């Protein structure tokens, strides 16, 4: 009798399971809209120039479109959400760091508040999130006052309302991730996992001291190891938010000839991964790589990516995915009142400092390097650092170098040529301290050879006046610098002689792969790089392009 009851119970359960499965099979597909940004970098106001796109009237030309700013982005995000019951707003890292004055003065608290107010739900951690180290990033998540500058904003900083994810970033002490590796969200009962991670090369892109306690694991190995865990939790739909990217040749909604790290990474991902939202390279593209949708939304808040997924209730997997980038055009979107009020509250505190006169320029100072690797603004920044540290009591420098990644934005000439402190700060936003050290001529050559330490992304150092060198593009690693063409004030650099050289503390710690600089002798610390450039402008304005030709490329 007992077996009979059990049999009836088992049969009933089976009928319920079959009925549920049949109902799921008949259920309508579930639509999900994902809105995404990347590399916002604290650009609460529109960036100079906006976004560069193909001219719609002449495909052979490019045009600049005024775009960006949190006020109009918030309006666009609201519009893109309309009519989509299932939606989520995510990001692929570098929301903060290398920020303009309005955000950076308050250690990027305004940006965290702005994006939280927009409804951002999830973000992967980018390399720039670690610009001020792990503990400061944790403060961004959890809130509280800055440990040195205390509370400077118009109201208490309560931290991000969105969740940072960092699947590949491991605390060496605990062996655990600094932030959760993923988050699972439900949409009409279907779970969708969002895995967030930064690039494994992060230690070479930020101050080594700030991430010394962390390990950055391989992106592919990290994601693929999580797939079985997610499947065990009933997840079939997987979206990866990765702070790494590629380099396409087409317009902002195209993907011809994409190259770069993201291509190999996506091809090696487990095929359970359905969508990849990327960043880091400051490019815009909508791609299909190895059968997966891969997107990126330019930089500085000029684009919002809208990704539309169709989810099957029976398999709980993605059955279709498409995307489009929408430009945050200045003329098309009204300012969001909440965002305007937030920015105005910080502006009232920042304006007296930001609007200080720095001097003037005769024309726009570009950060774009020529074929040899030299840029107009890079020359001027290096000259400013040399001028600040040349005196014997300031370091006795005879040469200065700066990394191209530290020169963040060009200094645009306004109609009257005036330049403010905020303009200077935007071009040098890291507040790196200058360090003057002694290097031999041989070490100088070894340092310059390290410009190609990462062959995918050479990092040409910008050099001060009086120093010059040539490099041969056909030579192999370690042999590109032509020793006899390295000169100071027209005289050859002596490999055995000693020279006092100024760099910023990021480079001095071996940042960007320039490990030779860690062996520099008799270091003397100076002022911050932004203050050196400000003083240079105050003393030498109006400033225009230098004669250049400090770097020469052979072949």
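Q: What amino acid sequence fits the structure above?
A:
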């Amino acid at each position: 009798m007992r077996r009979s009851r059990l049999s009836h119970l088992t049969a009933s359960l089976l009928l319920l399971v079959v009925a549920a499965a049949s109902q799921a099979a008949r259920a309508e597909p579930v639509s999900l809209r994902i809105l995404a940004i990347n590399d916002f970098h604290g650009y609460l106001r529109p960036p100079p120039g906006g976004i560069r796109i193909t001219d719609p009237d002449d495909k052979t030309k490019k045009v600049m479109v005024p775009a960006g700013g949190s006020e109009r982005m918030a309006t666009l995000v609201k519009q893109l959400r309309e009519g989509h019951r299932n939606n989520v707003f995510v990001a692929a890292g570098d929301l903060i760091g290398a920020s303009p004055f309005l955000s950076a003065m308050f250690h990027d608290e305004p940006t965290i508040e702005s994006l939280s107010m927009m409804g951002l739900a999830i973000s992967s951690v980018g390399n720039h999130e670690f610009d001020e180290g792990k503990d400061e990033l944790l403060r961004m998540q959890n809130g509280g006052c800055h440990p040195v500058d205390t509370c400077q904003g118009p109201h208490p900083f309560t931290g991000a309302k969105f969740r940072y994810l960092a699947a590949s970033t491991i605390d060496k002490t605990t062996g655990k991730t600094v932030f959760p590796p993923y988050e699972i969200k439900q949409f009409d009962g279907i779970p969708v996992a969002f895995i967030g991670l930064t690039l494994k090369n992060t230690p070479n892109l930020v101050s080594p001291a700030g991430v010394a306690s962390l390990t950055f694991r391989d992106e592919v190995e990290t994601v693929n190891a999580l797939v079985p865990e997610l499947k065990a939790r009933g997840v079939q739909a997987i979206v990866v938010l990765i702070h790494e990217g590629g380099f396409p040749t087409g317009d902002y909604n195209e993907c011809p000839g994409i190259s770069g790290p993201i291509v190999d990474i996506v091809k090696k991902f487990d095929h359970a991964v359905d969508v990849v939202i990327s960043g880091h390279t400051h490019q815009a593209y909508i791609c299909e790589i190895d059968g997966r949708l891969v997107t990126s939304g330019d930089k500085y808040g000029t684009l919002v990516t809208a990704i539309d997924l169709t989810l099957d209730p029976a398999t709980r997997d993605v059955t279709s995915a498409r995307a489009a980038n929408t430009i945050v055009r200045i003329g098309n979107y009204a300012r969001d009142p909440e965002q305007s009020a937030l920015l105005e509250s910080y502006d009232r505190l920042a304006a007296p400092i930001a609007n200080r006169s720095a001097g003037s320029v005769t024309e726009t100072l570009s950060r774009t390097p020529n074929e040899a690797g030299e840029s107009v603004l890079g020359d001027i920044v290096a000259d400013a650092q040399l001028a600040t540290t040349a005196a014997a009591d300031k370091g006795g420098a005879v040469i200065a170098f700066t990394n191209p990644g530290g020169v963040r934005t060009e200094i645009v000439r306004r109609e009257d040529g005036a330049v403010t402190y905020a303009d200077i700060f935007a071009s040098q936003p890291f507040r790196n301290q200058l360090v003057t050290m002694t290097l031999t001529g041989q070490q100088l050559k070894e340092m310059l050879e390290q410009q190609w330490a990462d062959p995918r992304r050479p990092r040409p150092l910008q050099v001060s006046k009086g120093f010059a060198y040539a490099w041969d593009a056909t030579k192999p690693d370690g042999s590109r610098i032509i020793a006899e063409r390295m000169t100071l004030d027209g005289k050859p650099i002596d490999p055995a002689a000693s020279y006092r050289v100024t760099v910023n503390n990021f480079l001095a710690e071996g940042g960007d792969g320039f490990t030779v600089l860690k062996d520099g002798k008799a270091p003397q610390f100076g002022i911050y790089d932004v203050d050196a450039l400000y003083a240079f402008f105050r003393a030498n304005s109006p400033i225009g392009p230098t004669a250049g030709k400090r770097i020469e490329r052979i072949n």
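Q: And what stands out in the fold?
A: The two ends are 92 Å apart (CA to CA).
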